[in-house]
Amino acid sequence: MSDLQEEGKNAINAPMNPSTVDMHPEDTFLEENEERTMIDPNSKEDPKFKELIKVLIDWINDVLVEERIIVKHLEEDLYDGQVLQKLLEKLADRKLNVAEVTQSEIGQKQKLQTVLEAVHDLLRPHGWTIKWNVDSIHGKNLISILHLLVALAMHFQAPTRLPEHVSVQVVVVRKREGLLQTTHVTEELTTTTEMMMGRFERDAFDTLLIMRRNKLSVVQKSLITFVNKHLNKLNLEVTELETQFADGVYLVLLMGLLEDYFVPLHNFYLTPESFDQKVHNVSFAFELMQDGGLKKPKARPEDVVNLDLKSTLRVLYNLFTKYKNVE
Hints:
CH_dom, 2 domains, 3-stranded antiparallel beta sheet, cell adhesion, Parvin, Beta-parvin isoform X3, Actin-binding Protein, T-fimbrin, domain 1, actin binding
């Protein structure tokens, strides 16, 4: 034990590692040319890193609320595959052929293998680089777990906003000629929401933005004409798409007009005041759209409420393509 601790001490004090890193005896017990990674302790204190973890935990708990599963620590709660299995089954609406409870390490890894293969089948067609595997997840590697969860959150359009540009310093410990050497690398966990979502299939509006960007102002005018054609029936007038749809009220009313039904006022906030009330309205409008036969909107309710013009335009453009001939 004293030899291991001394070996770890030598590595920590080596010139190529100026910062102090917490290393435990088990971290120093490496075979020749084997390497291990760990997050620099300073990065763990970064507010954006902490926010990312909190947002992901809250999202998982929201998805699994009916399963009565509560995740508190990502590494400890996800490594055996049980929670990941339930999460994927809920998100993808499919049942995986795995044992419900597995206590042995072999059983846990077999479950993880099945779950991750299903994840890869979903993500690979969209260009995601797979930065995790059975051993890293089962080994409680937080970086691998975060990469996996960010990919799932983006793919299934989690109704939350992940913090952008989150990076951490990772310490790579490698054994060479009997001595431990450490180097630091920067690991990027998130970029921008737009770039991450760009890994998935483009819709008609994406194509419009890319191929005919000079036509965007024309599109906006057409959308304003379209929504006013219907909202005028309620003596409502839209001049600014970005702001007037942000609270969700006009979206809900518009869906009622397009589908020719009255939306009970107790189902939404007619005069929303808080951010949550506005998100509720937009989310409810999205549900009405899906009930009307549209796919789940690519935009997120939070983006519409936050005055993201492209998100609002995308939602309205989808309505326009379906209801443009409705009188």
